[in-house]
Amino acid sequence: MQAAPWSISTDMVAQWTMAATAIAFDNVSKSFDGGRVRAVDRVSLAVTQGEFLAIVGGSGSGKTTLLRLANRLIEADSGTIAIDGGNIANGDPIALRRRIGYVFQSAGLFPHMSVAENVGITPRLTGAPAPAIAARVNELLALVRLDGAKYRDRFPHELSGGERQRVGVARALAAEPKIVLMDEPFGALDPLTRDSLGEDFRSLHTKLGLTTIMITHDMTEAMLLADRIAVMRTGTLVATGTAKELAAGTEPYVRELMSTPRRQTARLNALMTEAGAL
Amino acid sequence: MLSDPRWAEALAKLPDYLGNHIRVSIAALALGLVISLPLALLARNRPALRGTLLAVASVVQTVPGLALLALFYPLLLILSAWSLNAFGLGFSAFGFLPSVLALALYSMLPVLRNTVTGMNGIDPAIIEAAQGVGMTPRQSLTMVELPLALPVIMAGIRTAAVWVIGTATLSTPIGQTSLGNYIFTGLQTQNWVSVLFGCFAAAVLAVIVDQLLALIQAGLSTRQRLKVSGGIAGVALLVIAGFAPTLGRSQPAYVVGAKTFAESYVLSSLMTQRLAAAGLPARQREGLGSSVIYDALVANEIDVYVDYSGTLWANQLKRTDIRPRKEIVAELKAALKQKNGVTLLGELGFENAYALVIPKKRADELHIKTIADLAAHAGTMSIAGDYEFFSRPEWAAISKAYNLKFREQRQMQPDFMYAAVASGDVDVIAGYTSDGLIAKYNLIALDDPKQSIPPYDAIVMLAPRRANDTALQQALQPLLGKIDVATMQEANLRAAGSASPDAVARWLWEQIGGR
Question: Contact A73/B132, CB-based, under 8 Å?
Fold first, then answer.
C-alpha cells in the first residue's frame, strides 16, 4: 500500500514530541451512577501541540467521556487536565469551550439556525461584530469546501449528512481554536463521503497547525488520519503509539483491533493484483 | 329573523361588553403567562417540582369555571378587609380582580404543560452542542431551547387563550361585565337572541385571537417578520379596541345592580331609566349572585338595587322566625343601617315570595287548595326548586310546619321550573308569587294557612355612600309603593316573552302612572 502524502511528516512527529504539550491528562478518573460505572479509570495521556491523536475503542470504552472531560462538558472526579500547561479546573468552563473547537457525532447543528448562523455561533457568543462574522463564515465554508453563496442560508434539514458534518467542522473552527476535539465525526457517513471528509480535515489540521483529538471506533480510519493512536478499553488506556508501533505491539486487545485492517489490506492487495489494477 | 329589534339592542351593548371581555381576558392571560412561563422553566430540570406544579394545575382545571370564579370573591373580600385593617388600603373584591385571578389560574395548565413538554422534547444532543460551542446556560435557553420549544409553547398559549376567553363569560355573576352578560341576561329573560349573540361573539373573539396567535407562531417558526408583526399588530389592535370604549366615555356616576333573574333585570332597568330621566347618569351591573350583590352594595361597588325582605331577614340577620310584613321591614331598616350603613329607601309595593305551585287542573282533581292539603300527597310527588331554595331556612320552616316529605327533590334553573311542572316532569315547584308564568301555564300558588313562609317585600336598597344623596332618592321616590303584584306579574310575563328588560321597564313605568 502506498504511503499517504502526510506520512512524510514522521520527522515532524519527532520534532513535536519535543514541542510543548497542548493537552495533558494526568491520572484522570470519572465514574457515573454514584461510582458503580468507572467510565474513565486513571488515564494519563499527553497530546503535543500540532499532533493529530486518534482515540480508538469499542462502545463503553470511555473514549467519549475522556473527550468530554477535556472541555468540561463533564467534570473529572480525580486527576488533573491541563491545556497549554494550565489546569482547566481553575478557569471558566464557558471561556474554555469557546477556545476549543468541538465536532459532534451527528454534527449537532442547531435545526432552527441557518448554516451561516450555525457556523458563526461562537464568534457571536464572544461578541464579534456582525460584518466580521459574515466574512468569517464565508471563509470557513470555503475552508470546508462548501460554496458559501449556495449554502449559507440553508437550514440543516436541507443538507446531506456529509454537508452537515462539513458545517459542523466549520462551526468548530469559527473561533480560530488551536485545539479541536472530534467525537466520531465521520461515523455516520457513507464510505466515500467519509474518506474525502477525513482527508480534507487532515489537510486543514496541518494547514491551520491544529492540535486534534479524534474519537473513532474504526482502526483503519485512525491509522489513515492520525499521527498517533491511543487505544482504550473499559475506561483504561491500553496502548499508545504510531500505527507502526501498535502493529508491532503484543497487547492482545490491540492485536485484535489491528487484525481487521491487516486482513482487509491483505485481501484488497490480493484482489487488486489479480485485477492488474496496481 | 334579523329584523327582530333584539339584534339591534344586543349590538348596541357590544362595545361595552366586548371591551370589558377583552380587558379581563387579556389581563388574565398576561398574568397567567407571567406566572406559568417562569415556573415551567424553573421546573424543567426539577422532576419533583414539575410533578407538583402539573398536579396542582390539573386539579385547578377540574374545578368548574363558575365555581373557581365564585371562590375568589369571598377570598378577596377577606383579604381586602385584612389589608384595610393592616395598611388602611382596601381594594375591590368584586368584578375585575377576582375574575382576572381566577381566569389566570385557569390558563396555567396548558401553558405549564406545553412548556415543560416542549423543553423536555428537545434532543439532548442539541443541548450538549449548545454547551459545546460555549453557550452559557442562559444563552442555551434563549438561543436554542426556547426557540426549539416555541411551537409547542405557543400551542399551549393558544389553548389557554381560547379557554380564558370562553370562561370569561362566567365572570358576569361576580360582577365583571363580559360577553357573558348577553348569555346570563338572555337565559333569565328567555331572550334567546341575546344568548345566541353572546355565544357567537365569544366564539368569534376566541377564533380571532387563536388565529392571530397562530400567525405569530407560524411567523416565528418560519422566520417571516411580516407574519409576526401582522399577528402582533392584530393583538395590539384588539387590546386598543378593548380599551377604546372606556376612553371615549366618561364613567357614569351611578351603578344599578341586578340579580340573576328577569324581575331583577326589569327593576334595574326601570331604576336606571328613572335616574337618566332625572339627569343622573347611570349604568347597570347585571347578573350578580344573591350574596355577592349585598356585599357589593355595602362596599359601594353598586349604588342601588332591589332586594326582598325575606331574603335579607334570613341571609343578613340570620333570622328564622316569621313576623308580620311591616314589622320585618321596620326591623331590617334599623338593623341593616346599623350593621352595614345600608339605607332601605322603601318598598315598591309588591311581594315576591316563595310559593308551592302546582297545575290548576291537578289541584282540582286532588282537591288541593293549601300546603296542608298537599302534605297528604307529598310522599308520591316530586318537587323542584331553584338552586338555593332547599338550603334556605324557609324550606326548613315549611316542611316542618306541614310535615312535608316529598319522594324526590330537584334543583332547576328558575325559568324552566314552570314549564316542567306544567308538563308533569315534576309535580310541585317552589315558584315565586310575582312570576307571570304562574298565570301563563295555568298554575296556582297554594295557600299557606300556617304562615310558615316569610314575607318578601321588594325593597329599594341604597349603598352607604348614597345615604344622603337626595337627588338619587328623589329620582326613585315615584316608584315606591306603586307596583302591585298583578302589574309585576304582567311585567315578568312580558320579560319572559320576547320583550327586552328595557322595553318592559318602559311599559311598567307607563302602568304606574308615568308619562
Answer: yes
CB-based contact A111 B148, cutoff 8 Å = yes
Rounded Cα distance, A145 and A164, in Å: 12
User: Quick check: B125 and A94 CB within 8 A?
Assistant: no
Predicted-assembly ipTM surpassing the 0.85 threshold: no
Which of the residues in chain B have pLDDT under 70?
A: 1-3, 89-90, 189, 244-252, 514-515
Q: Testing the interface with B: which of A69, A96, A99, A104 to mutate, by most B Cβ within 10 A?
A: A104
Nearest C-alpha of chain A: how many angstroms from B47?
18
Q: B133 and A97 in contact by Cβ < 8 A?
A: yes
Angle at Cα A138 formed by Cα A132 and Cα A140, nearest 5°? 95
Q: Where are the domains of chain B?
A: 5-248, 254-351+459-511, 354-445
Nearest residue in chain A measured CA to CA from B148: A112
The 10s digit of each residue's pLDDT in A170-225 is 999 888 899 999 998 887 778 888 888 888 889 889 988 899 999 998 888 888 88
Domain pair B254-351+459-511 / B354-445, same fold = yes
| pLDDT tens digit sequence for B40-60 | 988 887 888 888 888 888 888
Each residue's pLDDT tens digit, A151-163: 989 999 999 888 8
Give the class (CATH, top level) of B354-445. alpha beta
State whether B129 and A110 contact (CB < 8 Å).
Answer: yes
3-class secondary structure for A49-85? Answer: CCCEEEEECCCCCCHHHHHHHHCCCCCCCEEEEEECC
Tell me the nearest-neighbour CA distance from B46 into chain A, angstroms.
18
> In Å, how far is A80's CA from the nearest CA of chain B?
20
For residue B57, the number of C-alpha atoms closer than 13 Å in the C-beta half-sphere is 24
CATH number for the region B5-248 comes to 1.10.3720.10
**Could you tell me which of A85, A8, A77 has the C-alpha nearest to residue A41?**
A77
Query: What is the dotted CATH code of the domain comprising B254-351+459-511?
Result: 3.40.190.10
Phi, psi (rounded to 5 degrees) for B319: -95, 145
According to the model, what pLDDT value does residue A3 have?
43
